[in-house]
Amino acid sequence: MSASSRKDNDIARQVVAHAARRFDEDGNPLDAWQAISFALSADLPLPPSVRAYLLDAARKIEVLLPAPGRVDREVAAAFGLQGKQGSNLFDRADRKTHDFTVAFQVWHRDREQPPDAKVMATYQAVAAEHVERCPCRTALKWRAVEHAWLQYAHEIIPRHLQSQFPNAKPGAILKATRTRPRS
Ligand SMILES: [Zn+2]
């Protein structure tokens, strides 16, 4: 496995775990689908609750006999993807999930930076790769990447590192915990 695909695999593993945790908390099937998408694309096992959700949907789909004109609605219902009255489940357009994934990329990208590199260079690198790597196919400015990092860093930086730098800002922790040796 190449270094970059190993890195993608690490990111996928963490996104799967995080999406499954959110699914367990709020039951939003979109979180399950994010876990499914990342798990399958990286050949990872599905978390138990996500697997149970998928199995349940499969069983419902398998026996579905919708009346004409009701196919869309009943399929959506089988997947738990029907919004509550008047609301659209997809409205949240999952900014949170998106930005969380961006923040993960910051963490992983920064691990490879030389000890003295500016943190901004990491944000810029993640921003530059974004259109290619993200399903949203949207260009991100480095400021947006920084914003995502600042928002989710506390969920991503391993606890033992956070406790080593209790008063440091998330950007400073990145720099302080780089593992690449000085050349
Ligand atoms: Zn994106």
Describe, in plain words, how this protein is organized in 3D.
- The protein is mainly α and 183 residues long.
- The protein folds into 2 domains: 3-87, no CATH class; 95-176, no CATH class.
- Helices cover 66% and strands 0% of the residues.
- The protein is built from 9 helices and no strands.
- The chain has helices at residues 3-26, 29-41, 48-62, 71-78, 95-111, 119-133, 142-156, 159-164, 170-176.
- The longest helix has 24 residues, at 3-26.
- The chain starts with a helix and ends in a 7-residue tail after the last helix.
- Bound molecules: zinc ion (ZN).
Spell out the blueprint of helices and strands.
Blueprint: H1 3-26, H2 29-41, H3 48-62, H4 71-78, H5 95-111, H6 119-133, H7 142-156, H8 159-164, H9 170-176
The protein binds zinc ion (ZN).
The site of zinc ion (ZN) has 5 residues, from loops.
Principal-axes shape call: elongated
Counting DSSP H or I runs of 4 or more residues, the number of helices is 9
Counted up, domains total 2
β-strand percent reads under 5%
Instruction: Report how far the terminal alpha carbons are from each other.
Output: 25 Å
> Which hetero ligands occur in this complex?
zinc ion
**Contiguous uncertain segments of 5+ residues:** none
Question: Which structural class fits the helix and strand makeup?
Answer: mainly alpha
Number of strands: 0
Sketch the topology as an H/E string, one letter per element: HHHHHHHHH
Q: What average pLDDT do the residues reach? A: 85
CA-atom Rg in angstroms? 19 Å
Measured as a percent range, the helix fraction is: 55-70%
Give the biggest beta sheet. none
